[in-house]
Every structure is written in C-alpha cells, then in structure tokens.
Amino acid sequence: MKRTAILLIITAAFLSACTNTKWVRTNVDMQRDFIVTLEQQEEGVIVQQQYEQPYEINLADLEKLMGDLMYTKAVGLTNKKKQNPVFQVVEIERLASVLVDTLAKADANQRIRFTSFNQGKASMFSVPQKTEGVLFVESDGRLNVAFNYINVARQPSETSAIYHNDSRVNPLKIETSDTHILSIDPYADLHKFENGNQAPMWVVVDLKKMKESTIPATVPVIKISEEISPAVVPTTEALGTSVESPAPTQSPEDMLKEDIRNNLKYLKELLDDGLISEKDYDAKKHELLDKIN
Q1: What gap in Å lies between CA 291 and CA 267, rounded to an integer?
Q2: What would you measure as the largest C-alpha separation in the chain, in angstroms?
C-alpha cells in the first residue's frame, strides 16, 4: 500500500513538472507563406536564457546566410543524397527582413521561431513543403539557427502558414536525422553536443567572420595612360578579329521542345528521388510527349 502511494506521488510530481514546463509564444508576423513568433520557456516563471538580445544584424548579412545554407537528405530506395538550398529566393525575400526586425526586439530570454512555406521549383508540379526552426544570438555573439525540419511535405490541411502544425520537438534536442545541414566555410559550423557528436540541423554562425566574407576584395585599377601607351593598344581592326554574329533566335517550336526536354529531365529526377510514383511519371511523360505531336 505504501509502495503504491509513493509511486502515485512520484507520478503526480512528474506530470506536474511536465505540465508546468511550456513554451509561450507571441506572434510577430503571420502571413499566408510564413509565421514568425517570439517564444520563451516557462516553468511557472520565465526560464532565464541570457541570449545576447536584442541584437541588430545587417539585412544583407542575414540574406547571405540564408542563401548559403545547404542541406543533404537521403531519399529514395538507394538513400541517394542530393545537395539542396534550405531556402528559395522568394522565401529569403519575404522572411529575412522580418527576422532582422524580430531579433532587434527580442529580449535575453526569447528565441525566434519561424515557419516558411514554399511550393517547390518545377513549373509543372507544385510540391507543398515547409521549413521550421528557431534562431537566437548567444552571449558570445554567435548566431544559432536550429531546424525542426527542412522542406518536408505539408499536410493537406496546411493550406497556408496560418493553419500549420507546430512541431512539439525542441530543435536543440535533435541528435539524429536523415537531413543534414552543411557547414559554411569559413564562418559557420555545426553545433557540437556535450558528447562530441555534431547536431544534424543546428548551425552556429560566427557573425564577425561572416561579415568579413562579404567584404569584396579591392581590385587594383590600371590606368591606360600610365601603364600602357595608347599607341600599342591593339584594335579589333588591326588584329583582323571578326565580330561574331548574334545567335539566331529560337523558333516557338524549338522553344517548346527545349521546355519539354527540361521538364522530362526534372520528372526523371523526381522519380529517382522517390518523390513521385511510376504511375505519375508515366502519365506526365505521355502528357508532355503529346504536345510535340
């Protein structure tokens, strides 16, 4: 009897602790294609995080980072890995400025959660996908970006970001995944856990090195009047160089054939990656080939 009572007390205490620990989120911007929120962990009181926030980051720097982020994912029966960008250009254009503004208003206990929707790249096929993660700046001035998932298929009910299903997993706890972010030399590396293992979807960015990598190298300007005598500068006429004629403009029929060729190649890639079935592949292939006839 006493043993049962002790077990009940322990269970109640555990459930109470789980109930009291939660992430409290405040919407910052909610659009059809993305959502950005500020979130903080609470256990009856706010859990202190000591992030270096608010933090001002240059928009161009964040856009560069988002454009540089690449990942690999094992797909298909052969587990073939293909390198892909995390964000499409259109996602960066609509999301980066919101993230910059949100970092500038976040406090030391809040991290930024974002969810971004996209529709794939093909003109014929629309593959509804979503990417979700968090970002925050550590006390040493390093920007952390950790993902729950990257470009996964959306549920049919997720017709817009407003109706998306939040991940219940803390991205900072994900130690294994078939999706892997790639390091960005020389300014971003994968986070390492205490056991020495690398996090698959958590990248840590050295903002100082990133800014240095965006500064263009100075190209020396050679003044012709000082370095090269105008008299010895060869002209096109002196060298007998003929001017090439512009390439002939493609006819509408040739353009159609080229477009069909590209779409057939993309179809084969989708099939090889296991993203469409043989039935879908054959149907779309015949549809394309019929256009030639």
Answers
A1: 16
A2: 108
Tokens 């080229």 sit at which residue?
Answer: 258
**CA atoms lying within 13 Å on the CB side of residue 53:** 27
Q: What is the pLDDT of residues 237-286, one digit of tens each?
A: 444 445 455 555 666 667 777 777 777 887 787 777 777 788 887 888 88
Strand pairing partners for 81?
A: 74
Contact between 105 and 77 (Cβ < 8 Å): no
Task: Give the pair of three-digit tokens for residue 82.
Answer: 């293909």
With tokens 């720097």, the residue in question is: 61
Per residue in 127-183, pLDDT (tens digit) is 899 999 999 999 888 999 999 999 999 998 998 888 888 888 999 999 999 999 999
pLDDT digits (tens, 9 = 90+) for 76-99: 666 667 889 999 999 999 999 999
Q: Is the pTM of this model over 0.70?
A: no
Tokens of 59: 């928009």
Alpha helices in the chain (DSSP H): 2-20, 59-68, 89-103, 207-214, 224-227, 236-239, 252-272, 278-292
Supply angle C-alpha 208, 212, 213, rounded to 5.
115
